[in-house]
Records
---
Amino acid sequence: MTHKTANYSGSETENYGQQAAAEALFDSIGDGAIATDEFGKITQVNRVALKILGYKEADLIGKWFPKQIISLTEDGIPVNLIDRPITRAFLTGLPIREKMYYRRKDGVIVPVSVSVSPILLGGKPIGAIEVFRDITREQEIDRMKSEFISLASHQLRTPLSAIKTYSHMLVDGYMGDITPAQKKSLRTIISATNRMNELISTLLNITRIESGTIAVTPKLLQMNKTVEEVIRELALMAADKSINLTLAPVKADADVSLKTDNLILKEILTNLISNAIKYTPEEGSVTVSIKPRSRDIQVTVTDTGWGIPKYAQDQIFSKFFRAHNIVKRETTGTGLGLYLVKGLLDRLGGKIWFESEEGKGTSFSFSLPRSRPGEKTPKPPL
Amino acid sequence: MANILIVEDDKDLNNAYRMILENEGYTVQSAYDGKEALKKLESFNPQLILLDLLMPIMGGLEFLQHYDLVNKHADVKVLIFTNMENSPEVTEAYKLGAHRCIIKSWTAPHNLSKVISDTLSKSSVTA
């Protein structure tokens, strides 16, 4: 150190000392850190960044960040330049935080949590600094947590199924005659187990959404097949209220293919259709229709139910919200179903809206893109 | 009346379904995991199997793989009876030839009987 400073004047020595201190500080950051100039060329990389990415300093310094460090989406698709956090930080002048994947030098994909901030001088960006960390372990813990919740939910439901089945058997006279008062008590038990089942199901899904652990696995599918499957599963629930549950005919040559996550789509449909059944009086009808459009597919669930009062229409996607006209008739809801549906649709890049008139019924519609950004639109089946 | 095999590890539920179906006049046998079900099927020929998915020793999916519904027992109807709605396991069961999936916690006994009689009557028409 003394040898090096011997050639500097007093102020240069001071500058050098400050620069060395800044470099040491940068290198000591516990997360990966990369600095760039205003053109996105890498000017500085710390040790942790080199370790996470498997590069040597010489591989990166002076190189264009977006080209040299490849970032991928959850599905392994390279992120477009315009969508890269560093580009967005330059364009907006704001810090950007995101979870994504980096491809290491050896080709291994690493999940990372990224935070990029533009370096501003007089309001103009003169560079950017990105701090990121490897979240492989966190993702593994999230996956284990999700599996545990899923298994625990299933195990909680098994005894509930036994309670419900035996209660039904008592009501239906499998064990002999019972009094009307006993029947009434048993129906209360059945209703309580139904509520508990719904709660378990909803809480499981909300936990997944809010923790960001809900996995999206897009696959090419036919919308009408998934709708038919959900209608089949809910047919008994509709039959219990003598509700006519149907799928409006879809033209034989209509292209209803899209690339999305089938399980999440089923969850969305299950919630919307079961809500429609629940909030429609006996002998009513629930109709599901599918409208293919060029870039997306629209699904509408129309019921002849009690409808949503005007005052409540702004709030129905809020957590725990329930309209008064519904609370009076149906006391078992949680106010979480539509909040969940909205969260799931956001995850799939979809939209939801509705039309409703109190006393006449409600139509909930959602649209899902035929493919997600970065993917080609699927071709119609031959 | 038809023969039905119930494959369900929860003894309380297995007994309940058995009681309900015997009351309807079916001949019913019970197994408590997939392996025991395969053993029972050596001497019992059901027209319908009511199959749970999550079971110890051998689960429902593994059972379906061994039983080879698609190629060897296309005339037997399998109803998946589970609480794992909208799960990848249910989708897989359909791929392995399961006829229909019923959610346990949503299904009252009279509805179970109805689904079974509908399924069996459809199979007798197509046979």
---
Amino acid sequence: MRLSSDKVKILARRRGESISALLARAGVSRTAFYSLARRRSVLPGTVAALASALDVSELDLLESKPEPDADPQRRVREARAIVRGRPGATFENVWHALCLLALDPLERLNRSLIRGRATALHE
Amino acid sequence: MAVPPPFTNKELAFLRVLVREGVEFLVVGLAAAALQGAPAVTQDVDLWFRDLQDPRLHRALRKAGVTYIPPSMENPPLLAGGGAELFDVVTHMHGLEPFAEEAPRALKLKIGRTTVPVLPLERIIASKKATDRPKDRAILPALEDTLATLRSLDGKGSNRS
């Protein structure tokens, strides 16, 4: 099992926290974090510290196989998998939610308000 | 001329004052849904206050330079001045428990430098279903798909590999 840096980042962003702030709060150095994310296995203590800081299970931060580099195709696959697991779900909704969840909450709100204000201009 | 950000510093400052003064409130509605990743469109940020007579609220409003306009026959309660026009005051959420029961379930999300209580997406969906206006029915699929996405990311009931 290896540490998924992407999962840690997504969970941190969902809490509105930067990766630096999370690592400081968890007592894990940036060097240690990125070093661990490159290894094939991780020390339980480090994962436990991060999981505790994020209030999730250690399993939520692990992946059993190397994760490919972040790219749109991976997000497409992720969206498709979610849609398959939820009959009636719309790919576009899931895709946009995944894109928005990669942002911090303020940016999500800004995008929502941008659209609202842009629409109002044309009413 | 520089274009101001959609959510301005004054609006951020207003939320910060509410939190600092200990005002009991929740961000609700589509802004709350958007904060949780929903691809939703909104023109305002709904704030649900536990008690509109709370002295802490009125102290916060004074500090932020915001005027509270009480409800009348013609209008709901309003906030004016101090950059608070974006915020709508909510006094009741259809389909939900009273504020005191919903507040402990709130998510704590960081907006800028301020951690703000936000109604969870599950409860926003419950409220939209109860309100059941055409615009509520229209947005429900996007909210429910976002919830499915969140649950999948959390590994709580879907097939994230």
